[in-house]
Here is the input.
Amino acid sequence: MKKPTLVNHPPDVSPPPGNQPVIAPIYQSVKYEFETVDETLRMLRGETPGYFYMRASNPTTRQLELTLAQLQGRDDCLATASGVNAIAQTLIALTKAGDHILFFIETYGPTRNIIRRLLSRFGVENTMLSIEDMAGIENVLAARPTRLVFFESPTNPVTKVADIERLVELAHRHGALAVIDNTFAGFHQHGEYDIDLFVHSLTKYASGTGDVMGGAVIGKRDLVDDLRPDFSVLGALLDPHAAFLLQRGLKTYFVRYREQARASQAIAEHLAAHPAVAKVHYPGLATHPQAALAKKQMREAGTVVSFDLRAGSEAARRFSEKLELFALTASLGSTESLVMAPQLMGSRDFTPEQARQSGIAPGTVRLSIGLEDVGDLVADIEQALVD
Ligand SMILES: Cc1ncc(COP(=O)(O)O)c(C=O)c1O
Here is the structure.
Protein backbone atom coordinates (compact mmCIF):
# COMPACT_ATOMS: atom_id res chain seq x y z
CA MET A 1 0.00 0.00 0.00
CA LYS A 2 1.49 3.32 -1.05
CA LYS A 3 1.33 6.23 1.40
CA PRO A 4 -1.45 8.17 -0.43
CA THR A 5 -3.52 4.97 -0.21
CA LEU A 6 -2.59 4.42 3.45
CA VAL A 7 -3.82 7.84 4.58
CA ASN A 8 -7.22 7.04 3.06
CA HIS A 9 -7.32 3.50 4.52
CA PRO A 10 -5.65 3.92 7.95
CA PRO A 11 -5.06 0.98 10.34
CA ASP A 12 -8.12 -0.34 12.17
CA VAL A 13 -7.81 0.36 15.89
CA SER A 14 -11.37 -0.66 16.97
CA PRO A 15 -11.20 -2.09 20.50
CA PRO A 16 -11.54 -5.89 20.50
CA PRO A 17 -14.83 -7.49 21.62
CA GLY A 18 -14.94 -7.47 25.44
CA ASN A 19 -12.90 -4.26 25.61
CA GLN A 20 -15.36 -1.44 25.01
CA PRO A 21 -15.02 2.28 25.81
CA VAL A 22 -17.10 3.33 28.82
CA ILE A 23 -18.23 6.43 26.96
CA ALA A 24 -19.43 5.74 23.42
CA PRO A 25 -17.17 7.46 20.89
CA ILE A 26 -18.29 10.15 18.48
CA TYR A 27 -19.00 8.33 15.22
CA GLN A 28 -17.73 11.15 13.03
CA SER A 29 -18.31 9.35 9.75
CA VAL A 30 -20.75 10.39 7.04
CA LYS A 31 -20.72 6.95 5.37
CA TYR A 32 -21.13 3.37 6.62
CA GLU A 33 -20.19 0.52 4.34
CA PHE A 34 -21.33 -3.09 3.89
CA GLU A 35 -19.42 -5.85 2.13
CA THR A 36 -22.12 -6.50 -0.46
CA VAL A 37 -24.84 -4.71 -2.38
CA ASP A 38 -27.45 -7.16 -1.04
CA GLU A 39 -26.51 -6.43 2.59
CA THR A 40 -26.75 -2.71 1.81
CA LEU A 41 -30.18 -3.14 0.22
CA ARG A 42 -31.45 -5.25 3.13
CA MET A 43 -30.42 -2.52 5.56
CA LEU A 44 -31.95 0.24 3.39
CA ARG A 45 -35.23 -1.71 3.23
CA GLY A 46 -35.21 -1.87 7.05
CA GLU A 47 -34.83 -5.67 7.15
CA THR A 48 -31.52 -5.54 9.05
CA PRO A 49 -30.11 -2.94 11.45
CA GLY A 50 -27.34 -0.62 10.41
CA TYR A 51 -26.32 2.76 9.08
CA PHE A 52 -25.63 4.04 5.58
CA TYR A 53 -25.51 7.84 5.49
CA MET A 54 -25.16 10.26 8.42
CA ARG A 55 -28.08 12.46 7.35
CA ALA A 56 -30.49 9.54 7.83
CA SER A 57 -29.01 8.30 11.12
CA ASN A 58 -25.73 7.66 12.91
CA PRO A 59 -24.86 5.72 16.07
CA THR A 60 -23.99 8.75 18.22
CA THR A 61 -27.25 10.57 17.47
CA ARG A 62 -29.15 7.27 17.76
CA GLN A 63 -27.84 6.69 21.28
CA LEU A 64 -29.11 10.14 22.27
CA GLU A 65 -32.49 9.49 20.60
CA LEU A 66 -33.01 6.20 22.43
CA THR A 67 -31.98 7.76 25.75
CA LEU A 68 -34.43 10.65 25.29
CA ALA A 69 -37.26 8.32 24.25
CA GLN A 70 -36.82 6.29 27.43
CA LEU A 71 -36.57 9.39 29.62
CA GLN A 72 -39.87 10.65 28.21
CA GLY A 73 -41.48 7.20 28.46
CA ARG A 74 -41.95 6.54 24.73
CA ASP A 75 -40.37 4.17 22.16
CA ASP A 76 -38.66 6.44 19.70
CA CYS A 77 -37.23 9.85 18.98
CA LEU A 78 -35.69 11.94 16.22
CA ALA A 79 -32.98 14.38 17.31
CA THR A 80 -32.62 17.57 15.28
CA ALA A 81 -30.26 20.50 14.88
CA SER A 82 -32.32 22.81 17.14
CA GLY A 83 -35.58 22.96 19.07
CA VAL A 84 -37.34 25.07 16.44
CA ASN A 85 -36.15 22.63 13.82
CA ALA A 86 -37.87 19.76 15.70
CA ILE A 87 -41.04 21.86 15.90
CA ALA A 88 -41.01 22.97 12.26
CA GLN A 89 -40.19 19.50 10.91
CA THR A 90 -42.86 17.85 13.06
CA LEU A 91 -45.52 20.30 11.91
CA ILE A 92 -44.46 20.02 8.26
CA ALA A 93 -44.43 16.22 8.42
CA LEU A 94 -47.88 16.04 10.04
CA THR A 95 -49.83 18.52 7.92
CA LYS A 96 -50.96 19.18 4.35
CA ALA A 97 -52.92 21.98 2.65
CA GLY A 98 -56.39 22.32 4.12
CA ASP A 99 -55.45 20.87 7.55
CA HIS A 100 -56.17 22.90 10.65
CA ILE A 101 -53.92 23.45 13.69
CA LEU A 102 -55.16 24.69 17.07
CA PHE A 103 -52.46 26.44 19.07
CA PHE A 104 -52.08 29.12 21.72
CA ILE A 105 -51.07 32.70 22.42
CA GLU A 106 -48.90 31.26 25.19
CA THR A 107 -46.54 29.53 22.75
CA TYR A 108 -42.87 30.22 22.04
CA GLY A 109 -42.73 33.11 19.51
CA PRO A 110 -40.89 31.30 16.68
CA THR A 111 -43.41 28.41 16.95
CA ARG A 112 -46.23 30.90 16.43
CA ASN A 113 -44.36 32.19 13.39
CA ILE A 114 -43.91 28.69 11.97
CA ILE A 115 -47.65 28.07 12.26
CA ARG A 116 -48.95 31.50 11.28
CA ARG A 117 -46.46 32.56 8.62
CA LEU A 118 -44.68 29.52 7.22
CA LEU A 119 -47.39 26.83 7.28
CA SER A 120 -50.14 29.18 6.17
CA ARG A 121 -48.09 29.81 2.99
CA PHE A 122 -48.67 26.13 2.20
CA GLY A 123 -52.41 26.27 2.94
CA VAL A 124 -52.33 24.92 6.49
CA GLU A 125 -54.93 26.80 8.50
CA ASN A 126 -54.80 27.68 12.19
CA THR A 127 -56.67 29.06 15.16
CA MET A 128 -54.85 30.76 18.04
CA LEU A 129 -56.60 30.88 21.42
CA SER A 130 -55.50 31.35 25.01
CA ILE A 131 -54.53 28.13 26.78
CA GLU A 132 -56.96 29.22 29.53
CA ASP A 133 -59.92 29.40 27.14
CA MET A 134 -61.25 25.86 27.62
CA ALA A 135 -64.71 26.74 26.28
CA GLY A 136 -63.13 28.22 23.13
CA ILE A 137 -60.96 25.11 22.69
CA GLU A 138 -64.02 22.83 22.92
CA ASN A 139 -65.94 25.01 20.48
CA VAL A 140 -63.18 25.11 17.87
CA LEU A 141 -62.54 21.37 18.05
CA ALA A 142 -66.26 20.63 17.77
CA ALA A 143 -66.69 23.10 14.91
CA ARG A 144 -63.90 22.08 12.54
CA PRO A 145 -61.79 19.01 11.82
CA THR A 146 -58.39 19.61 13.40
CA ARG A 147 -55.19 17.74 12.60
CA LEU A 148 -53.38 18.63 15.81
CA VAL A 149 -53.42 20.67 19.00
CA PHE A 150 -50.01 22.17 19.82
CA PHE A 151 -49.43 23.44 23.34
CA GLU A 152 -46.82 24.13 26.04
CA SER A 153 -46.85 23.69 29.82
CA PRO A 154 -45.70 25.56 31.83
CA THR A 155 -45.92 28.37 29.31
CA ASN A 156 -43.34 31.00 28.52
CA PRO A 157 -42.81 33.42 30.30
CA VAL A 158 -45.58 33.50 32.93
CA THR A 159 -45.66 29.74 33.64
CA LYS A 160 -49.38 29.07 33.05
CA VAL A 161 -50.08 25.38 33.54
CA ALA A 162 -52.13 23.68 30.80
CA ASP A 163 -54.72 21.09 31.87
CA ILE A 164 -53.01 18.30 29.94
CA GLU A 165 -55.46 15.50 30.69
CA ARG A 166 -58.39 17.60 29.50
CA LEU A 167 -56.62 18.99 26.44
CA VAL A 168 -55.48 15.55 25.30
CA GLU A 169 -58.92 14.05 25.90
CA LEU A 170 -60.57 16.83 23.88
CA ALA A 171 -58.03 16.57 21.05
CA HIS A 172 -58.43 12.79 20.79
CA ARG A 173 -62.23 12.93 21.03
CA HIS A 174 -62.20 15.17 17.96
CA GLY A 175 -59.63 13.13 16.04
CA ALA A 176 -56.70 15.53 16.56
CA LEU A 177 -53.18 14.67 17.67
CA ALA A 178 -51.92 16.22 20.92
CA VAL A 179 -48.41 17.67 20.54
CA ILE A 180 -46.67 19.32 23.49
CA ASP A 181 -43.55 21.47 23.54
CA ASN A 182 -42.28 19.97 26.80
CA THR A 183 -39.09 22.03 26.98
CA PHE A 184 -39.97 23.84 30.23
CA ALA A 185 -41.14 20.73 32.08
CA GLY A 186 -38.25 18.52 30.96
CA PHE A 187 -37.89 14.91 29.81
CA HIS A 188 -38.93 13.37 33.15
CA GLN A 189 -42.35 14.97 33.30
CA HIS A 190 -45.75 14.52 31.59
CA GLY A 191 -44.90 11.08 30.14
CA GLU A 192 -47.90 9.51 31.89
CA TYR A 193 -50.35 11.57 29.83
CA ASP A 194 -51.59 10.25 26.49
CA ILE A 195 -49.70 12.92 24.53
CA ASP A 196 -48.89 11.79 20.99
CA LEU A 197 -45.68 13.73 20.44
CA PHE A 198 -43.30 15.62 22.72
CA VAL A 199 -40.99 18.21 21.20
CA HIS A 200 -38.03 19.60 23.13
CA SER A 201 -35.31 22.14 22.73
CA LEU A 202 -32.24 20.15 23.81
CA THR A 203 -30.40 23.48 23.90
CA LYS A 204 -31.87 23.96 27.39
CA TYR A 205 -31.82 21.13 29.94
CA ALA A 206 -30.06 18.44 27.88
CA SER A 207 -27.12 20.70 27.18
CA GLY A 208 -27.25 22.27 30.63
CA THR A 209 -24.11 24.24 30.00
CA GLY A 210 -25.62 26.29 27.17
CA ASP A 211 -22.85 25.53 24.69
CA VAL A 212 -24.66 23.32 22.18
CA MET A 213 -27.97 23.37 20.31
CA GLY A 214 -30.36 20.55 19.53
CA GLY A 215 -33.97 19.51 19.42
CA ALA A 216 -36.02 16.34 19.61
CA VAL A 217 -39.41 14.89 18.83
CA ILE A 218 -40.41 11.88 20.90
CA GLY A 219 -43.38 9.53 20.57
CA LYS A 220 -44.65 6.05 19.87
CA ARG A 221 -42.60 4.19 17.26
CA ASP A 222 -45.29 4.13 14.54
CA LEU A 223 -45.81 7.86 14.66
CA VAL A 224 -42.07 8.63 14.76
CA ASP A 225 -41.56 6.23 11.83
CA ASP A 226 -44.12 8.25 9.88
CA LEU A 227 -42.12 11.43 10.52
CA ARG A 228 -38.69 9.92 9.76
CA PRO A 229 -38.64 10.13 5.92
CA ASP A 230 -39.46 13.87 5.90
CA PHE A 231 -36.91 14.59 8.63
CA SER A 232 -34.24 12.70 6.72
CA VAL A 233 -34.93 14.17 3.30
CA LEU A 234 -35.02 17.72 4.66
CA GLY A 235 -31.65 17.27 6.37
CA ALA A 236 -32.96 17.98 9.83
CA LEU A 237 -31.08 15.46 11.93
CA LEU A 238 -28.55 16.36 14.61
CA ASP A 239 -24.88 15.86 13.85
CA PRO A 240 -22.91 13.37 15.98
CA HIS A 241 -20.63 15.90 17.62
CA ALA A 242 -23.58 17.87 19.04
CA ALA A 243 -25.28 14.57 19.95
CA PHE A 244 -22.19 13.53 21.94
CA LEU A 245 -22.20 16.81 23.89
CA LEU A 246 -25.92 16.51 24.60
CA GLN A 247 -25.55 12.87 25.71
CA ARG A 248 -22.80 14.07 28.05
CA GLY A 249 -25.04 16.86 29.34
CA LEU A 250 -27.80 14.38 30.16
CA LYS A 251 -25.58 12.58 32.69
CA THR A 252 -26.18 15.41 35.14
CA TYR A 253 -29.73 16.28 34.00
CA PHE A 254 -31.60 15.01 37.06
CA VAL A 255 -29.20 16.52 39.58
CA ARG A 256 -29.22 19.87 37.79
CA TYR A 257 -32.97 19.99 37.36
CA ARG A 258 -33.59 19.09 41.01
CA GLU A 259 -31.13 21.67 42.35
CA GLN A 260 -32.26 24.42 39.97
CA ALA A 261 -35.94 23.73 40.78
CA ARG A 262 -35.16 23.84 44.52
CA ALA A 263 -33.39 27.19 44.13
CA SER A 264 -36.27 28.45 41.94
CA GLN A 265 -38.78 27.64 44.68
CA ALA A 266 -36.68 29.54 47.24
CA ILE A 267 -36.29 32.55 44.94
CA ALA A 268 -40.00 32.56 44.04
CA GLU A 269 -40.89 32.56 47.75
CA HIS A 270 -38.40 35.34 48.41
CA LEU A 271 -39.79 37.49 45.58
CA ALA A 272 -43.38 36.87 46.72
CA ALA A 273 -42.55 38.52 50.05
CA HIS A 274 -40.90 41.58 48.47
CA PRO A 275 -42.87 44.86 48.55
CA ALA A 276 -41.70 45.93 45.05
CA VAL A 277 -43.18 42.77 43.50
CA ALA A 278 -46.86 42.71 42.52
CA LYS A 279 -47.07 39.06 41.45
CA VAL A 280 -44.80 36.01 41.15
CA HIS A 281 -45.39 33.40 38.45
CA TYR A 282 -44.05 30.03 39.56
CA PRO A 283 -46.06 26.78 39.51
CA GLY A 284 -44.53 25.68 42.83
CA LEU A 285 -46.12 28.57 44.75
CA ALA A 286 -49.42 27.98 46.57
CA THR A 287 -50.57 31.34 45.14
CA HIS A 288 -50.14 30.17 41.51
CA PRO A 289 -53.60 30.17 39.82
CA GLN A 290 -53.16 26.49 38.82
CA ALA A 291 -51.19 25.38 41.89
CA ALA A 292 -53.32 22.24 42.38
CA LEU A 293 -53.05 21.29 38.70
CA ALA A 294 -49.28 21.87 38.79
CA LYS A 295 -49.02 19.63 41.85
CA LYS A 296 -50.99 16.90 40.09
CA GLN A 297 -49.09 17.11 36.78
CA MET A 298 -45.55 18.00 37.81
CA ARG A 299 -43.02 16.39 40.10
CA GLU A 300 -40.89 19.53 39.92
CA ALA A 301 -42.18 22.99 39.11
CA GLY A 302 -39.37 24.02 36.77
CA THR A 303 -36.52 26.49 36.86
CA VAL A 304 -38.15 29.59 35.36
CA VAL A 305 -39.48 32.17 37.80
CA SER A 306 -41.22 35.24 36.43
CA PHE A 307 -42.56 38.18 38.38
CA ASP A 308 -44.24 41.54 37.83
CA LEU A 309 -42.60 44.62 39.28
CA ARG A 310 -45.15 47.12 40.60
CA ALA A 311 -43.17 50.06 39.17
CA GLY A 312 -43.59 48.83 35.55
CA SER A 313 -41.45 48.44 32.49
CA GLU A 314 -38.64 50.96 33.02
CA ALA A 315 -38.08 49.67 36.56
CA ALA A 316 -38.01 46.13 35.13
CA ARG A 317 -35.44 47.23 32.55
CA ARG A 318 -33.26 48.78 35.29
CA PHE A 319 -33.64 45.65 37.45
CA SER A 320 -32.57 43.37 34.57
CA GLU A 321 -29.54 45.54 33.82
CA LYS A 322 -28.48 45.89 37.48
CA LEU A 323 -28.30 42.13 38.10
CA GLU A 324 -24.70 40.98 38.18
CA LEU A 325 -24.99 37.20 38.35
CA PHE A 326 -27.82 36.88 35.79
CA ALA A 327 -26.90 37.25 32.11
CA LEU A 328 -29.35 39.46 30.19
CA THR A 329 -30.11 37.06 27.35
CA ALA A 330 -32.41 34.42 25.85
CA SER A 331 -32.70 30.73 26.75
CA LEU A 332 -33.19 28.83 30.00
CA GLY A 333 -32.10 25.65 31.73
CA SER A 334 -28.41 26.62 31.79
CA THR A 335 -26.18 26.28 34.81
CA GLU A 336 -25.74 30.07 34.71
CA SER A 337 -28.72 32.20 35.76
CA LEU A 338 -30.33 34.35 33.06
CA VAL A 339 -32.76 37.26 32.94
CA MET A 340 -35.16 38.52 30.27
CA ALA A 341 -36.46 42.10 30.45
CA PRO A 342 -40.10 42.81 29.46
CA GLN A 343 -38.94 44.86 26.43
CA LEU A 344 -37.50 41.62 25.00
CA MET A 345 -40.65 39.50 25.47
CA GLY A 346 -44.20 39.47 24.10
CA SER A 347 -45.08 39.98 20.46
CA ARG A 348 -45.74 42.88 18.13
CA ASP A 349 -48.17 40.55 16.29
CA PHE A 350 -50.60 40.39 19.22
CA THR A 351 -53.83 42.41 19.27
CA PRO A 352 -54.28 44.36 22.54
CA GLU A 353 -56.68 41.62 23.73
CA GLN A 354 -54.18 38.86 22.89
CA ALA A 355 -51.42 40.85 24.64
CA ARG A 356 -53.64 41.00 27.74
CA GLN A 357 -54.34 37.26 27.55
CA SER A 358 -50.62 36.48 27.22
CA GLY A 359 -50.26 37.53 30.86
CA ILE A 360 -47.09 39.55 30.17
CA ALA A 361 -47.43 42.80 32.14
CA PRO A 362 -45.30 45.94 31.56
CA GLY A 363 -43.18 44.98 34.59
CA THR A 364 -42.82 41.23 33.88
CA VAL A 365 -39.28 39.91 34.28
CA ARG A 366 -38.30 36.31 33.55
CA LEU A 367 -35.55 34.65 35.54
CA SER A 368 -33.99 31.33 34.59
CA ILE A 369 -32.35 29.95 37.69
CA GLY A 370 -28.94 28.30 37.39
CA LEU A 371 -26.65 26.37 39.69
CA GLU A 372 -24.97 29.27 41.52
CA ASP A 373 -25.27 29.46 45.31
CA VAL A 374 -28.89 30.40 46.01
CA GLY A 375 -27.86 32.89 48.72
CA ASP A 376 -25.71 34.75 46.18
CA LEU A 377 -28.61 34.83 43.71
CA VAL A 378 -31.03 36.18 46.33
CA ALA A 379 -28.49 38.85 47.36
CA ASP A 380 -28.05 39.86 43.72
CA ILE A 381 -31.84 40.11 43.23
CA GLU A 382 -32.10 42.16 46.44
CA GLN A 383 -29.51 44.71 45.33
CA ALA A 384 -31.09 44.97 41.86
CA LEU A 385 -34.54 45.57 43.37
CA VAL A 386 -33.29 48.72 45.10
CA ASP A 387 -34.46 51.26 42.53
C1 LIG B 1 -40.35 26.54 24.91
C2 LIG B 1 -39.32 26.59 23.83
N1 LIG B 1 -39.47 25.81 22.75
C3 LIG B 1 -38.57 25.81 21.75
C4 LIG B 1 -37.46 26.62 21.79
C5 LIG B 1 -36.52 26.62 20.61
O1 LIG B 1 -35.38 25.92 20.87
P1 LIG B 1 -33.98 26.19 20.11
O2 LIG B 1 -33.48 27.49 20.60
O3 LIG B 1 -33.17 25.00 20.51
O4 LIG B 1 -34.29 26.21 18.64
C6 LIG B 1 -37.25 27.44 22.89
C7 LIG B 1 -36.07 28.32 22.94
O5 LIG B 1 -35.97 29.21 23.76
C8 LIG B 1 -38.21 27.43 23.94
O6 LIG B 1 -38.08 28.22 25.01
